[in-house]
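Take a protein:
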Amino acid sequence: MRSLLAILILACITIVSGCATGPSAGGSQRSSLGNPSPAPPATQSAPPVATTSQNSVPGLTFKLATGEMVFVPDSLPPSAMVFDLVVHFHGAPDVVQREFAAAGLRAVLVTVNYGGLSGSYERPFNDPQRFRTLLDDTLAELKSRQRVAETAQRRRLCVSSFSAGFGAVRALLKVPDYFALIDGLYLADTVYAGYVEEDGQHRVNPEDMTDFRRFAAEAVAGRKTMIITHSYLEPGTYAGTHETADDLIAFVQAKRQPVDEPGPAAMHIISRVDQGNFFVRGCDGKTGEDHLAHLRNMRFWYGMLPVEQSR
């Protein structure tokens, strides 16, 4: 029988105010170091992740039959013939909607919040039809509720994720049609990977990064947009978000620039990369609260996505 300590380490970790559960590397089973530990150190206990929005953000909020929350800001007119769509993975919908609205985006937001570790997101979206159904159901509901024109069509599609939500993003990028369809990625202290051992050193498993690398290269070339913010939290037995960011930076042959810049709230930006449409912001901090700050302050970077902004 596992010890109580082991159970706590393997358990889903929940954090107050946003209720973000801890990430899992979800790395390749072929890693020479075996399957990575599924969660970083616990920080604080709290109630389960919220599944409904209870905030007062101006706009329409409704739930799809499959449970995902849709937010339509008042700035998007019901007569819209085209609209941009952002699908976000992981995080309490009211927090994500608040940040999305504060960024002034005139687009539709869908929040997918299953809770749990990265496998909770990667497994469902390993079925390619699931994402297509999500897109189709969203469009149908928008028309049914008369929040867009009857003949409206989606224009740009962007995806964002926080913490464990990267599991869904990784699954989507494996599908050529979705890779081509997604115009922008915003990765908020997310993307973890397993380790492999090379020359006695732990290195990020390249198999876990293949499609993220491809997307980064497309962003550098100006054909996609990729925004990465990360903390320096050290998971220990698998690669953290700063290490996977380093992997992508090296792959596109970019270089971090050390900076000393104020970020949103108490966040502090200490490094950055701006190459084509590939943007990385390294934010100081190694605690669970530092990790959660990337969810609580998404408004600061949401506006960099290629979607329409309110005038």
